[in-house]
Amino acid sequence: xxxxxxxxxxxxxxxxxxxxIGQVIESVMPEVAVQQPELLxxxxxxxxxxxxxxxxxxxxxxxxxxxxxxxxxxxxxxxxAKLAERLAGGGESERARALVEACDAARALGHEDxxxxxxxxxxxxxxDDLVRAALRRRAGELAARAHExxxxxxxxxxxxxxxxxxxRERAELTLAKAYLARSDERPAEALAVGRTxxxxxxxxxxxxxxxxxxxxxxxxxxxxxxxxxxxxxxxRCVEHATAIGDLSGLARALALLxxxxxxxGELAKAEDLAHELLGxxxxxxxxxxxxxxLRALGRSFFGLGRFxxxxxTLERALALADxxxxxxxxxxxxxxxxxxxxLAIERGDFASAATTLSEARAVAExxxxxxxxxxxxxxxxxxxxxxxxxxxxxxQHAAAARAAAVEHECRRCGAGIAATLVEVACASGDLALxxxxxxxxxxxxxxxxxxxxxxxxxxxxxxLLAAHGDIVGARNECIEALxxxxxxxxxxxxxxxxxxxxEIDVNGKAQSA
Length: 513
Description:
Helix content: over 70%
Order of helices and strands: HHHHHHHHHHHHHHHHHHHHHHHHHHHHH
């Protein structure tokens, strides 16, 4: 009925009514204009008050950004840009300003069309050099991130001409140049320029930009092999995000710190960080982030030997993958199933482990982390097969694990699966292959600064040394690995290594006899 009545009103009268409704809300209910600017944007968009419609669309975008609803913000800014085309002369300035904000929202969402939005704005007429410079800086950075080096250089050369010599805009340009250096495979220069961007942002008193620059420095430092500097930059990200109340930035930094603590075997610290991360992701309403935080917390409990807590926490993470619970956000059940499978192996529940790992492999193709999950799931299936005495299956899974790790050239995956690959090769009697996998894995772990992964590989290598008749060397490898596990965890690796030492001692006595 409502639609019939609405359609019966002439277009001119509809425009008039929408305009009047918007004006009444503005004057009589100003709180609605503040809390629901999109309502006024919709009414004015259907009227002749195009300027007001643009204004309220921009306000709607700003409010959505403040609420971390970036997809909504992108919608509102695009609507403002479209409305600007109805202005006399095409509204070039209004359209360009709206597209700057739309580009920022798309970039924050990780959308591939962020660069296209900036270049679309640049393709149109524009008399405002400040807006043109802002778009050039964004296009230059986004092109660099997409490894379009020449395209980035062209945008940034023009931006350099239009950008003031100091202030926030210069810091933004410097950060874009750092990404250009990275795109051009100059990691040391990218790191140095990134550091400069941080200083310039702080000098301009813009901690939001300083946060973005520190995040870049963390990435560039890791590229340059400086894991400690990467970690320190991430810790500074927490400080910046906390100071400006940026929950999204805080969650990103806490996630990196949590997984770094897990990698380093700092399990108690990882547990504390995971709790903080869970709080931040819950306040954001980010289901995928909540699942990731719970998964990290479960891994912390797992490493600390608190298996029951680990299982319960991982089940909570898995529950978030229920389509009825998660809405449109993927909670990455494959990652959670992988940890649950590993937990089942350590508990000796091989049947449950086999089922869980098979489920993980089945859903991994839909995971955003599928490239990292494929080798890790295959490696755990190889370890399970080895424990069950299925050597042929173990070899097949181990080969699949290494092929997947090599395909996407990930050192972290290479370090994480190396111990299992060594064990399978030793069990197969292929000592040359075992030695190659040991050397390869230790190099990955050393370059990334992963003491627990290094220790696990060395403990697995005890079988290799024992097979060569070096019983003393095999025992020493295990003793040194055990010291790491006792200091950092996880407890199940410490127990596994103690059992291995006992086996070596028994075999050594048998050989002596």
